[in-house]
Amino acid sequence: MEQFISHKSNAEAMVKGVVPTQEYYLHGSILDSNRETLLYRLQGSCDGDQSKFLDHEQVFVLKGQALNAPDVNVSIRKSLLPVPSGAVRNPCQMRYTNDPDSDRSKPTMVRTCLDIAVNEDQILQYLKSLGFSFEYEFVSKGYVFRRGRTKISVSKIHRVLVKGQTEKIEPLTESNLIEFSCTAPAGTEHLQDEIKAYADQLKPHVNIDKQDVKRLVSTPGFQNNPNA
Amino acid sequence: MALPIQSTEVSIEALQEYPIQSFQYDGKEISTEPLSMSENLSRLAERIDFTSDGGENVNEKNKEEAPATFQTSSWPWESVRNKLRSALTETSVLLDILTIARDRRYMSIESINNEVPDTRIPLNLISKKKGLNSAAQIIQDGIDRMRKTLQEQQSRSMDFHQELYNMRQRDGWKLRKVGNTIIGDLSYKSAGSRYTAQGTFEVKKSEDEDATHEGTSQSPGRAPPQINSSIQVSVPTELEGFVYIYASLIKDDGKLNFSDLSSCSPPIQYARIGKQSWQTHLDNAQYVIFCKEIFHQLSREAITMKFPLPNVVVGDQVLCHLYDDVKLIIAMCRTLPDEDDLGRVRSNFTPTRHFVRPTYSYVLEHNLHQLLREIHSRTATLPLPHPITGHIGATKRRRLAGPYAFGKIELEEAMPSISLLQQIIIQSKHYYLHTLVTSVLDDIAKEHIDPQIIVHHGAIGTAHQSMIRVFIFNSFSETTRCCLLFKIESDILKCVSGNSVFVVNRDAQMIRNILEEQICHHKLNSITLAIRLTNWNILSQQSYIPVRFHDDMKFGGKPGYVLVASPNRRRVLLVTCYPKQKCTVSLQRTSTGTLSDLITEEKWHDLSGNFEEIDLNCMDFTHSSCFATRMEALMCCLEKETQTNFY
User: Fold this and answer.
1) InterPro entries attached here (chain A) (predicted)?
2) ipTM for the complex?
């Protein structure tokens, strides 16, 4: 925080490597029947307690204007958990992520990501004005853990049946998504080994590894085989 | 026939004519074409027998040659090809056999043992005996090991692995295996601490259980604790021993010399720390880390931050200035395990002349612990609900900063600008004021039996704000009570009484004065009530004029008084109240002389006279020491007396 204030602008802060722009992440999947064991294991090895979360995420896309220009994806995520009376609700988070780095030698997936808290009422209008179009939405429900700088979430993705109505949801699959994620400023590659080492510790329960989503989508039968 | 022998040269050469193949009907001869070089070679090659291995079967060769010559017409190289093919087949078979034989799963190539089996019986027996012996030894070792394990299980409540499991599951220690050693983590990093000190410990299987038992038999006088644990932990040497944070307020009367502080530093004591269970051992070590973190942060802040009066950090000691004459000393006291077997407490500390050991404050120590834990929890993750994306360390204020368009000033406000040292100084000031008020109240409550003083300490308060409510009331009457409220903050002490608020600045005398005044006031109030109850008439009344300053207080201030007359106006009483003094009751003396020329009627006797003080203690009211009750009784008596006299 002090570092933020001491810098005159965001751009300056980013150049000096204060803003965490790199996300190192790994993905895995586990069936409902085995989830409790994993949660138990995570609870034992992570810092603090597990926290239950219920988030709604909307993804917007800005189609590339020029030929071969990549699409820009932006997701807006808000918590659906009830707020204690008298407290101000935490704002929703907007996240931009680009395509992951295709370097296979790295132990984790790396992508550039930017997180910013936004005002929910105005951001949708703003994105629309910029030309973003609504792509899809889902509700993520599960547990989040913390281990040092790594955030570990075990969550189930739910489909929203009627657009915009987050009460009517149904689970997409019988499996849960596991995500190991750590956001850090550029030049903190050593964190990758830390994440990978911890993911390897959970090998008896679940295989958490680099998953290239693009490759998975193109694989036939991906939808029917959610358990890795 | 004898021919003359002539040396005739006969030349032998190849016939120039080619062999005739056939005759045509016209008698023309068709001779065969001569063999070309390659045809000649192939014919010669046909003659080679690839199957024969030398000149052993020459006859067979000749026999085989005859048919071979007849078959040449089909294809010149056929026989060669056939032979080569058969050779290839044999080579392939050989190769296959070799491959299989190399694998040793289906086939093995062994040399044929043509040796005669050894018939030497004694040698055979010896080798068998040796083999049996070694087998027996292995079984014996196994039995021993099993027996030992069984004994261990019987002697101990649980085995090593079970205890290790409990250590992780029940006690929540973080353990991991590195190589062959088990390493645990003692630090508070997972709880949000940023202290970088090393805090690892090693878990080992204890092997000295037998030694411990032997030790007990040798020295029965000393009773070492019975530790039935298969786990042994070893912590770094810097985390051994006991540590506590020593926080205390001292009064500096000008004699405290800072140069002596180094010699005043808390003693490092050495004590024999008996064998302790691993739980206690780890708890102690973790406590050491915690105390070190507190002290480390305090000393760092004391040096780096600017205060009106500079702080002093000497050794394991920090000295801060609360007021000109009050100092806060925070020190880290250590007790290290003594290597000396005698077990006596050794101290290298000699108190200096100036060092007066101040009272040790548990409250401040507890506050320090609480402050650091708050810092830890602040740095830990933000509690839900919030979207789980986003950075871990972001505070709620920072999350709100964007959407609510906070400026630099608001952001700076959100930063935890107040340091641990500043907080503890604020809390110490409050603690000092609180102690001051409490001690004055206790003293006054001890001094005054009538009226009674009851002090309520507010249960709801913070470490830098609290309330004390004081009730003054008579033991036999709940109707009149006086209420005071002390509001204690860090720098300011306020006293609320009725509608007035006084600001008291850590002045014990002033607190005492206010209380004395209130007591005085209360007495007058209770007398007024008694007067009303007995139907006496108030002739004149002066409430107590509060005095707030020492100088006036020395003269007792201006007293409050009540002048009352009996219903028939024949008796007049004067009650005077001075603070810090007892109330005096005086009765107006009436003339007792006989009638004279001037005084013709009895009623003129009551006219005037001097006031005489009455000692209320002489009254026979042993059951009540309450002043108001005595006054009430006195008035009743006087009234009755005048009535009897009058009628």
Assistant:
1) Mediator_Med18
2) 0.76
